[in-house]
Amino acid sequence: MPKVTSATPDADGLAVAIAVARFNHYITSRLLEGAIEAFLDKGGSENDLHVVHVPGAFELPLAAKKLASSKKYAAVVCLGAVIRGDTPHFEYVCAETARGIMDASRKTDVPVAFGVLTTDTTEQALARISPRSNKGADAMLAALEMANVMKQLSGKGKVAKKRRKR
Ligand code: INI
Q: Is the distance from CB of 26 to CB of 87 less than 8 angstroms?
């Protein structure tokens, strides 16, 4: 039988930080609502949440790295909305935000969820913040599941048997 590790997005007893971009606030505020609702719905306590506002998606990686490296949080959730305009700015903001968020996670060993919408139109962004399907909630669930996976992978499992030399 293979050894299997899997976890649920249970928030009971977990402290989580949310970094949220103010740019396109009418969308990111709904992502934030979705993320907080999901956290509470999974048994988290409001006192264990820390919400940090930053100007735009481009600033999310720095906030995420600072929060993750503090080791105060089991996970960090990044929320933003980048909507394509007529300039190449979109590509730069999207690419650096995604790379920076992944870097923050890899450098700190803390799960950092990517809840950043990158859409061509406002309509596409609005479709991702409906009560039926909210990407902020999805990002929170991914962060919680990964927080619990990381707990299990942090030395709580049995160590693999060493192979004997022949
Ligand atoms: N920031 C966003 O979060 N979304 C956008 O759509 C966006 N656009 O289109 O420019 C955006 N730009 C600002 C950027 O994130 C930084 O805040 C800014 O460049 C200052 O560093």
A: no
